[in-house]
Amino acid sequence: MSDMATEVRAPGDALTFDPDAVRAAFPILDQEMNGRPMVFLDSGASTQKPEAVIAAEAEFYRHDYANIHRGVYDLSQRASDAFDGGRRKVQAFLGAADWREIVFTRNTTEAINLVAWSFLEPRLQPSDEILVTTMEHHSNIVPWQLVAMRHGAKVVAVPITDAGELNLAALREMIGPRTKMLACTWVSNVLGTVNPVAEIVGIAHAAGVPVLLDAAQAVQHVAVDVQEVGADFLAFSAHKIYGPSGVGVLYGKREHLEAMPPWQGGGGIVDRVTFEGTTYGEIPFRFEAGTPDIAGVHGLGTALDWFGQFDIRAVEAHEIRLMAEAQRALQQIPGLHALGDPRHRTGALSFWVDGLHHQDVGAMLDLDGIAIRTGHHCAQPLHRRFGLEGSARASFGIYNNEADVAALADSLRYIVRKYG
Ligand code: PLP
């Protein structure tokens, strides 16, 4: 076992997290990029997939694939069982009370759009407000703007501090009778800030405001329990948690979903269709028009099984340790500045370098086989808050190790010395 292994013992079990063994489960990582061993530090954009997930999807297509739910033949039953099993696994993973509270979408973005159009739009009045935060991804800003525009309502951003933390005092002041929704990210995709979501939900609920949590950057890094946190809605994407692209999840409290109309028409959502009118089916099917990504949902279930073999506290401790080490190393590079310095950070570390464009930094790191992301990371308002147009972002996953951090720091030191 590697000397980096983190051992965490929970009551009744003894789980060991060995980063070297974890890394070996990801075939894509075992390759060179530009003649160097690849260092993948772009998991915030999308995570790589373990062999278990790749194999499960391939096997599913080889042996069990058919369309689901309306087939009486054995193969369709098997495919339906795999799909329905995926939903149960998501329910267990999120700690939801009921499988009907899990709606499959294409991604986080679509899940947020669903809530914007089906839950919020029918309730909006002129001069209503939707609160978001300055650290939101565009996916958690633009859908709300689209529905607000229809009704003369407004999207208002709760500010953040220089450290990149949400200003809770401002949130308390800004929330009021005009607020119809609070949409907030759990973890920032740029700053890595872990927001105190239970406290935020408590503040909103005290004012009678429902909350959507964007968990796109949370589910793969911190323990998520929707009942514990009390969110009305929560969204995430399978591709951020070692699952396939093309599948997203919306969790919604049953009483909300049951009161919501369908937002897309089509097969699968109906009870009875006539040319005079249509009645709609039960939740969650009411929100899942058309053939879903059947193999993708099975792949997500497999990813959650795979991820679930590790104690999330060990994963979190490993990633936080790596990020702290990266922050320490990068801080020592003259002219390199990190965005924010939140007390609780996971997943992402963004920075800029005096005199160098972030895209040039990314391109030069690529020459050393290091994959990071550059640009605004779909968070333009956040970058403007820090007086920037964009930044370079290193983001971490379960498979990263200290050698990745050292390679990043070495390469950045060289780039800054030579070109900074
Ligand atoms: N929200 C956050 C915080 C994200 O980081 C992302 C993706 O990077 C999204 C939403 C959108 O996710 P998707 O593109 O899977 O819909």
Q: What do you see in this structure?
A:
This protein has 420 residues and is α/β, with parallel strands linked by helices. The protein folds into two domains: 19-50 and 311-419, Alpha-Beta Complex (Aspartate Aminotransferase, domain 1), CATH 3.90.1150; 54-307, Aspartate Aminotransferase, domain 2. It has helices spanning 19-24, 51-64, 74-94, 108-120, 142-151, 168-174, 197-206, 226-229, 254-259, 294-308, 312-331, 358-367, 380-385, 402-419; strands at residues 6-10, 13-17, 32-33, 36-37, 39-40, 102-105, 129-133, 154-158, 179-185, 211-214, 233-237, 248-252, 270-273, 278-280, 336-338, 348-353, 370-371, 373-375, 391-395. A hairpin with a 2-residue loop joins β3 (32-33) and β4. α3 packs across α10 and α11 (312-331) packs parallel to α14 (402-419). The longest helix is centred in the N-terminal third of the chain and has 21 residues, at 74-94. It is globular, with a radius of gyration of 22 Å. The model is unreliable at 1-14 (pLDDT under 50). Pyridoxal-5'-phosphate is lined by residues 107-109, 137, 139-140, 185, 189, 214, 216-217, 237.
Give a quick summary of the entry:
The chain is α/β, with parallel strands linked by helices and 420 residues long. It has helices spanning 19-24, 51-64, 74-94, 108-120, 142-151, 168-174, 197-206, 226-229, 254-259, 294-308, 312-331, 358-367, 380-385, 402-419, and strands at residues 6-10, 13-17, 32-33, 36-37, 39-40, 102-105, 129-133, 154-158, 179-185, 211-214, 233-237, 248-252, 270-273, 278-280, 336-338, 348-353, 370-371, 373-375, 391-395.
